[in-house]
């Protein structure tokens, strides 16, 4: 018997052509089984039915320019008319700025530029100076935006300062009670927290009351994308810290705090947002003393912030419950106080786990801003609907085009938040990698 021993490695052969390239991808993802093959052909058929008409309506047969509705009427142009983008072009200023005075729209544009210009470096992890950028976004930018949009020169009376002093005294009393009885915080930290709230707030009020030479613009003239972003951004920024405090309070060992947080969360979660807006805008003034009134937009902002904070609290509470007990015990073994334990150990892990839920709440809040129309505020969708009543643009395709443009804008913002949340999940998912 003759034996043969190979002294050299066998030559490497290329993989079969049917498993690589486009053909391999198609076989693996679309035609890997009989069921997948059937579903693939059904999907292709649905695409054939849906996509070509959309392309024809939105692009091929669309009207892009025109002076009035005659440009979008089939009997006037002698052909089938699809989307009337000429209507969107004619009303674009109102869609972006609402009924804000035309000569003052540069202020809104400046607010947009400053906001997006500061947000982009903040969300890009590789860019430096995150602390300064966050300080500008959370402390300086809101004041600048408020003064630019309203014009500043707010009339602050003596009654306001008396009420403000009473509020500071109440907060100091709560801090003293928590330090001496409940032992949640140290008195020094409590006084520091009240000062960090009171001093910047008083400075903002003083700056806003100064005459900076800008013409005042009432919030009733705001509208379009401006109102949508103001309501959404305010609700998102305010709901996060309030929701975290409510979630911590619901898990507190102090019965009074726990019951208060539970009652608050369950009440706001049990009431539809449209009811909250109606009550805050229409019913609340009936319970206030005569001559005392709040701006309608301010009432809406408070209602939206409290409503979304209740949902955010439950999202954060889910993350807190997912943290193992050993993390708490380890932090307490190190001698950390309650707030240091939460700030340095527990909350970073909990918030990382519930990023999808947090962003989902933000997206839902952004879309729910359309409900402010019920109280007479014309947001992005509301201002588009308002312009449908213009007889110069009364055509069969006007409403479809307006709603399509609103859907595109909402999709851009919501899809952007969704993709960024996925990016952050992948970037922070360091504890579950192989």
Report the C-alpha radius of gyration, rounded.
29 Å
Strand coverage percent: under 5%
- CATH level 3 topology of the domain at 219-434: MetI-like fold
Class of the domain at 219-434 in CATH? Mainly Alpha
Proper CATH architecture of the domain at 219-434 = Orthogonal Bundle
**N-C termini distance:** 50 Å
What would you call the structural class? mainly alpha
Topology order in helix (H) and strand (E) letters: HHHHHHHHHHHHHHHHHH
Structural write-up:
Among the domains are: 26-65; 219-434, MetI-like fold, CATH 1.10.3720.10. It has 18 helices and no strands. The protein has 434 residues and is mainly alpha-helical. The chain is flat and about 105 Å long. The longest helix is centred in the last third of the chain and has 31 residues, at 398-428. The chain starts with 20 loop residues before the first helix and ends in a 6-residue tail after the last helix. The protein has helices at 21-29, 34-60, 74-77, 85-90, 92-97, 105-123, 130-150, 158-182, 187-209, 225-250, 255-269, 273-287, 296-321, 325-333, 338-353, 355-368, 380-387, 398-428. 69% of the residues lie in helices and 0% in strands. Helix 12 packs across helix 13.
What is the compact description of this entry?
This protein has 434 residues and is mostly helical. 69% of the residues lie in helices and 0% in strands. The radius of gyration is 29 Å and the shape is flat.
Pick out its properties:
MetI-like fold; mainly alpha; 434 residues; flat
How are the elements arranged and paired?
Elements: H1 21-29, H2 34-60, H3 74-77, H4 85-90, H5 92-97, H6 105-123, H7 130-150, H8 158-182, H9 187-209, H10 225-250, H11 255-269, H12 273-287, H13 296-321, H14 325-333, H15 338-353, H16 355-368, H17 380-387, H18 398-428
Helix pairs in contact: 6-7, 8-9, 10-11, 10-13, 10-16, 11-13, 12-13, 13-15, 13-16, 14-15, 16-18, 17-18
